[in-house]
Amino acid sequence: MDFLNSIIISFSNFINISSGFLYTYFLVFFLIACGLYFTIRTNFVQIRFLPHILYILKEKGEKEHISPFGALMVSTASRVGIGNIVGVAVAISSGGVGALFWMWIMAIVGGASAFIESTLAQVYKRKDGEFGYKGGPAYYIESALGSRKFGIIFAISLIACFTYGFNSLQSFTLTSAFEVYVGSDAFKNGNITIFIGLITAILVTGFYYGGSKASAIISSVLVPIMAIGYFIVAMIVIILNFGELPKAFSNILSEAFDFEAIFGGFAGSAMVIGIKRGLFSNEAGMGSAPNAAASAHTTHPAKQGMVQTLSVFIDTLVICSASAFMVICSTDDGIKGLKGLPLMQKVMEGYFGEFGLHFISISVVLFAFTSLIGNHFYSEANFKFITKNKTALNIFRFSAIFIVFLGSQMKLELAWDTADVIMGIMATINIVAILLLGNIAIKVLKDYDMQIKEGKNPVFKASNVGITNTEFWK
Asked: What does the DSSP 8-state code read for residue 298?
């Protein structure tokens, strides 16, 4: 037992050091630079087409295919989850309220990166069976860069991140939502977590073996209900504390630009914590959402690219902000020293009593559950890129179900740090790819712009923009 504990401690220390190095010295600046570059190259596509996106979402996919709205909900199911509730609480408790500002920055500049990666995914999508589509970074790396090995490296990083990193974290958080009801002692003895882990693993089994259509259907139903319900409750809190908002904004901005604090302890600063939690929450430029974007049936790749920028904004500018303002406006002294989910539970209990506690606990459970589904959707698309062997696929699905159970038994710090490290590696690979291929997505955007100016409902033909290596848009 002592030997096992020493291994766990050594692994935890390694992950912690790796996370600090990755985000302190490299990824923070890489992500912002990439987002700014594509914001300028696309003439602020994430802003200027926002009203137009609502018309795109009204498009009906063919009966057998996922619609643009369905793809939006699958990607939002992965984005909108514990990062919007627990992640925000972790960011504020670790980096101060200024972390929220840097989460906003990540969403705004990252929206351009989200457009590029999702447009590329649509351009290079492929048929998946008789009706469906599949695609994502692994596919556009192979088709556009001509490197299957590079594509496989990305696919492995995504599977590691979403199946064995994020889903273990989602499962842990879902399980931890019940701790407040049974008490810490009962929760730590293991029996409760084992029971909840088994139930969760059984519930996801049907979706993991049910295919992408099942994932899209459950996400299209649950995600809007959850997001709207959570946002309404948050709006009630914000309206009741409206007079505190100017002070809250002032604190956010002053702490965000407290450069003495930032450079005095950069790894734990508002900037680093905010960008790290922002990336986890909205996934802009990370290479995950393109897998959902590729599955949509649409007349032009740029349409789905724009839809995915909306998902980034919904995630961070709306839902994360709502969570943050609930914490910032709280006057409950009992929240001092709390972190993560216990902080949010105590905040909501302070506002609404037992209803608030139950509401936030149920929200976390449902958000985490839909993320477990959305994350697997991404992983399976990339597993199929590596191999189409059905036996291997079923073994992978079983391992994905097992990690859902195993994640329910994890510790908080190790779960978050492991997810952060794998996420950073995956994001780096994808950003390199979209920087190399960004000109293709920009050509597609120009084609879309031209057709809009001509009063047309844009329809894409790859040959019109000089693309010859796409399977679907010939």
From this structure: -
Buried b (16+ CB within 10 A) or exposed e, 233-257: bbeebbeebeebeeebeebbeebbe
> What is the per-residue pLDDT across 252-287, written as a single tens digit (0 to 9) for each?
888 887 665 554 455 556 777 777 777 767 777 788
Residue 126 pairs in a beta bridge with 134
CA separation for the pair 427, 78 (Å, rounded)? 15
Going 96 to 101 to 107 to 109, the CA torsion angle's sign is negative
Under CATH, which architecture does the 16-465 domain have? Up-down Bundle (1.20)
Query: Helix-strand-coil percent breakdown of the chain, rounded to 5?
Result: 80, 0, 20
pLDDT digits (tens, 9 = 90+) for 103-122: 888 888 888 999 999 999 99
Q: What pLDDT, in 10s, does the model give residues 186-223?
A: 666 667 888 888 899 898 888 888 755 555 566 666 66
**What is the 8-class DSSP label of residue 472?**
S
Furthest C-alpha separation in the chain: 71
DSSP strands (E only) in 150-291: none
Q: What is the CA radius of gyration of the chain?
A: 21
Taking phi over 0 as left and psi of -120 to 50 as alpha, with beta for the rest, 96 belongs to: left
- Helix axes 212-240 and 354-386, enclosed angle (nearest 10): 150
Please report the pLDDT score of residue 7 as a whole number.
Answer: 64
- The sign of the CA dihedral 365, 371, 376, 377 is positive
pLDDT at res. 27: 72
Query: Do the Cβ atoms of 375 and 162 come closer than 8 Å?
Result: yes
Rounded distance between C-alpha atoms, residue 199 and residue 207, angstroms: 14
* Residue 80 confidence (pLDDT): 64
Rounded Cα distance between 339 and 322, Å, is 17
**Helices 99-123 and 88-95, axial angle in degrees (round to 10):** 140
The whole-angstrom separation of Cα 46 and Cα 48 is: 6
For residue 239, the one-letter residue type is I
